[in-house]
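Run Leucine, glutamate and lysine rich 1 through structure prediction, thanks.
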Amino acid sequence: MDRHIPMHALPEEIQKMSPEEKVCKYCGVSYLILHEFKAMEEKVKAMEKEMKFYQGSVEREKKLQEKLQFLSQDFEQYKIDNESKTESRIYLRLKLRLEVRHCQVRELMPNLQHSAEPCIDL
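Sure, done. The structure for Leucine, glutamate and lysine rich 1 is below.
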């Protein structure tokens, strides 16, 4: 906490005042430091409010890290599944294209030996 250091000395009339004149009759605190005391009270209240906000943040952080790890694992599994499905689709498309080409070649060249498999009609 920063401490305020005055740049100028107290005025002479304040320095000449008796201690009874400088002190609050209710709480006994010097008027000269009362404003500093009140400012410190306000800072303490603000810090308590901030501490309340951060209270439990370690536990929340740990739970969020666990959730993030779980979601990352799910994401990786979805990527693997998607790649596998994509590869299967590519394989099936290529196989279909090959069969279609094979049938087209057989139609263009009927003298070639035919396989037992019929051509796909598209």
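The longest helix spans residues 57-108.
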